Amino acid sequence: MGTINSALSLITGALDADQNALNVVSNNVANASNTAYTREVPNWTENQPISINGMAYGTGVTVTGGVSQRDRVLEQRLQQQTQASASSTALLTALTTLQSSFTPASGTSTSGDIGTDITNFFNSHTQLESDPTSNPLRQQILSSANTLAGDISSRAASLAAQQSSLDQSANTVIAQVNAISASLAQVNVAIQSQSPNQDAGPLEDQRQADLTQLAQLIGVNQIATEQNGLSVTTTGGQLLVSEGQLFQITTGAVNGVTHFFVGGTDVTSALASGGGQIGGLLTARDQSIPATLASLDQLAYGIATQVNTVNNAGTDLVGDNGNAGNIFNAPTQVAGSAQSMQVVLTDPNKIAAAGLGLGAGDGGNAVSAASLAAQAVINGQTPSNFYSNLVSTLGATVSETTIQGTALSASLSQLQSQRDSLSAVSLNEEAASLQEFQRSYQAASQVFTILNSVYASALNLGVETAVA
Amino acid sequence: MTMGWQEQLRPGVALRGIVQQATEALIAMDAQRLEELALCCADLNRELEGARMSPETAADFRASAEDMELLNRILFETRANLAVFSRLHVMRLGEATRWPGTERDTTYGDN
Lengths: 468, 111
Hints:
The complex is a heterodimer of chains A (468) and B (111). With 468 residues, chain A is of the alpha+beta class. Chain A folds into two domains: 2-69 and 426-459; 77-414, no CATH class. Chain A has helices at residues 2-30, 72-100, 114-130, 135-194, 202-217, 268-274, 276-311, 337-340, 364-371, 383-423, 427-459; strands at residues 40-46, 50-52, 55-57, 61-68, 220-225, 229-234, 239-242, 245-246, 249-254, 257-262, 265-266, 314-315, 354-355. In chain A, the strands form five sheets. Chain A has a four-stranded antiparallel beta sheet with strand order 5-6-7-8. In chain A, strand 10 (257-262) and strand 11 form a beta hairpin. The longest helix of chain A is centred in the middle third of the chain and has 60 residues, at 135-194. Chain B has one domain. Residues 100-111 of chain B have low confidence and may be disordered. Chain B has four helices and no strands.
């Protein structure tokens, strides 16, 4: 009787195990559309056999819940590439906006194009040479100077506005980082208290979802700690989360821009090179835009000082020798020259077209002004070449960043395919598992029925029965 | 299959087409298609060997420069991913050994 009882107990366990396995599959199917969910497989554990009179008897099987199918190495690589890709995308967006400031819309006039402004300005001096006393030609010089100065200063203002906008975006991203870090710390505490020695299933999914979001925003490293805990640092090594403890990133203004601090340490430049959206935003804010602005300043400084020098080296229409005055406001330093560039000369007669001490009909000094267009007066280059190099360097940077971004996105796509094949729910596979566990359940039920019948027969042993 | 690709790509050399197709295949980790494209490249090399490069071919090479750069970057990133792919491959092999006949149906990655 003991043997039949054991068999009944064993098969009851099998029915329970199959039922649990079916529950795991049902849970997978229910979460098939949940991208944050990680597929689980039933964890079958063979029960300890018992030994009777030297013989070992199996005691069946137990399903101790589901085990999430994830690979930490793959997840970490995915997060690294996510950080790099997010940084590249944010940088590319900023660079594209920056580039559009210097590219006239195709199919429209060249209005607003600084390159054309430079050419027109120096050409207007060439035209004045042919008729140095012409008022319309003098007006033309002032007009083209105004256009040039206006376009350079408005472009500089637009770069400053973009820098400020990136500064605000960086602040928003850091606020999100702090919120996600707080969530991570909470999840860490829950995982350490509930699943210190095994995969925490849905809680681990939540932690991975937080880490993925974090990787989109900022470059981080993960360090596994005891009892299934996790510490998260910036790629520069500053702790953001240590198990349940949170270290917020704080902000402060330094020279008019927002800097970021962890525990009193300025981590701004480390964040710029660390990846994530913040990396791209800070690279654009602190490197790309300042570099472009510095070039624009050099251009404005060079043109203004050279043109002013030439105008003060000739004779104007009212007879001032070597003292005609400045056409552009005189910049005192290179920095800020672009944004402050403007035309200060209002009287066209004060344009010194004649050579020093020569009569009104001379156009020698206008020739000198026009020849500046072909002289290497800005950083060893002509004004036009300097500007065109600025634009083409920007174009090359955009092209390089585009290629890098596409490559990173391709790499991410490869890794996501791998992750999906390992961790995402495949309805076909779940259907196959359902059939398998259903058959197993049916078989166990059949064994149960037979055992029941054997049990009934055994109970009836010795009872007289009518023989037909 | 190989002849099909060659016939499709041979007129006008179409190096750029090959490079773009190879990039797509590499992203999808489609080993079979990459192999076909490699054969196309081998044929292309044979055609060009010793022959004077025509202006069309030279233009095709210039037009392909950016696509080649992209392919190169993706190759670089794929190489960096290989350690992870190999690890997963070993895991899957282990799974298949423990549960014969239950190897997961993977579209990518084991090539």
